[in-house]
Amino acid sequence: MKTIDEFVALFAEQLDDTDPSTVTAQTKFRDLEEWSSLLALSLISMVDEEFDVALKGDDVKNSETIEDVYNVIKSKI
Amino acid sequence: MAFFEFKNVRIAGISAAVPSFVANNLHPLPEDAVSSDYTPEDFVKTTGVLERRITFTQTTSDLCFHAAEKLIADLNWKREEIDAVIFVSQSRDYTVPATSGIMQERLGLSQETYCIDLTLGCSGWVYGLHTVASLLSTGCMKRALLMAGDSKAVRPMTISPLFGHAGTVTAVEYIEGEQGFRFHCGTDGSGYDAIIIPDGGTRNLTTPKSFQLEACEDGMKTRLQPRMKGMDVFSFGITTAPKSVKKLAEHFGFDYLTYDYLVLHQANMAMNSMIAKKLKLPVEKVPSCMHHYGNTSSASIPLTIVTELKGVADKEPKQFICCGFGVGLSWATVALQTDHLVISDVVEVDEAGNVVM
């Protein structure tokens, strides 16, 4: 499985208007200016492609930080 | 395992009717449920839905009626030779009775016509084709009309800018020696509330409370409007649809990559691009009409064939894989060949119910 750092980098790739260098495992992604339900779909696509894990809406909604999402993925592998 | 093969059946023709009114998503209507979460430009970019056809007067059966009249004429079928009408929709004329019976009378079909309604959405055309094939494959009935679609917005309730209205008709016939259709079908009822109209059925009858707005994942909705858990449906679609196509190919021992077309239910562009990518299919093999018609529920597969493949798929034999997936949660995939397929011109219907060209 990919490391948390690799996941953070993949997460940052989904964002258009956020400087990737400011994105960390502790970033509260839903507080990002550009976060939207459309970006959530990009996140779900990326996780499906990179981890072969199907994230549910609640998995995203109940996660606060990027690391929380990573831990959900880990629990589903 | 839900795999099926029906021989001695073929698709004779496909037609579609849409409202003549075009709603543009870059300039939303007062009725459009626009999210403040993102701009109209971002919505169009992600969903691929620039515009769609909308009506406030024409029901699904009205659109299907005009599509049926067009197709019967184009095929030169005699009305007395039509043995069955299967009406697939989530927007029937009445809660009771079935709409297929109303279509029997309105189209002037025989009283010996077999008529049933199926309540399915995005997977509905493939399930409807399965039902038609199983009815015809014994040879007791020779010709059937499969109607599929959803329509009609009701003011003052809002409408989702993702969805468009359409009614389609697929003419299926029994011909001995035809290769027929192969299916894979599946259901996951645990996701029944991923897309749901909570009130108006017998579980939750319509009450004054049904008309109050509630905060849902996809905006403020009354309990009489469809609401969707978008992320769950997205996740379901991109995982289940490719698997269903692969399972069908594996079960029947064919290479889906050699087929001419994969026609997917037109869910949204982000979802369909992902499904095509996972199946390693090039864009030219995956036709799409959602840019101009949106997500048209059970009409989306036949509407895509009518709008995108007329002049191509009616000129020479073609091999199709069609996959529907969504509300239920329900999904189904069919593999079929067409030859001498009749594809009607799209029929446009105005708000007064007249055909305009």
**Number of distinct helices of chain A:** 4
Helix content of chain B: 25-40%
Described by the principal axes of the CA atoms, the overall outline of chain A is globular
Uncertain parts of chain A: none
The CATH topology annotation of chain A reads as Non-ribosomal Peptide Synthetase Peptidyl Carrier Protein, Chain A
Structural class of chain B: alpha/beta
Overall strand count of chain B:
19
CATH-defined fold name of the largest domain in chain B? Peroxisomal Thiolase, Chain A, domain 1
Relevant CATH superfamily of chain A: ACP-like
Helix content of chain A: 40-55%
- The average pLDDT value of chain B, as a whole number, equals 95
Structural description of this entry:
The complex is a heterodimer of chains A (77) and B (357). Chain A has a single domain (4-76), classed as ACP-like (Non-ribosomal Peptide Synthetase Peptidyl Carrier Protein, Chain A), CATH 1.10.1200. Chain A has helices spanning 4-14, 37-51, 57-61, 66-76. The model of chain A has no long low-confidence stretch (mean pLDDT 92). By secondary structure, chain A is mainly α. Chain B folds into two domains: 3-180 and 342-356, Thiolase/Chalcone synthase (Peroxisomal Thiolase, Chain A, domain 1); 184-338, Thiolase/Chalcone synthase (Peroxisomal Thiolase, Chain A, domain 1, 3-Layer(aba) Sandwich). In chain B, 26% of the residues lie in helices and 26% in strands. Chain B has eight helices and 19 strands. Chain B has helices at 40-47, 60-75, 99-106, 124-136, 230-252, 269-278, 290-293, 300-309; strands at residues 3-6, 9-19, 22-24, 51-53, 84-88, 114-118, 143-150, 166-174, 181-187, 195-196, 214-216, 219-221, 227-228, 261-264, 318-326, 330-338, 342-343, 347-349, 355-356. In chain B, helix 5 (230-252) runs parallel beside helix 6 (269-278). Chains A and B meet through helix 2 and helix 3 of A and helix 1, helix 5 and helix 6 of B.
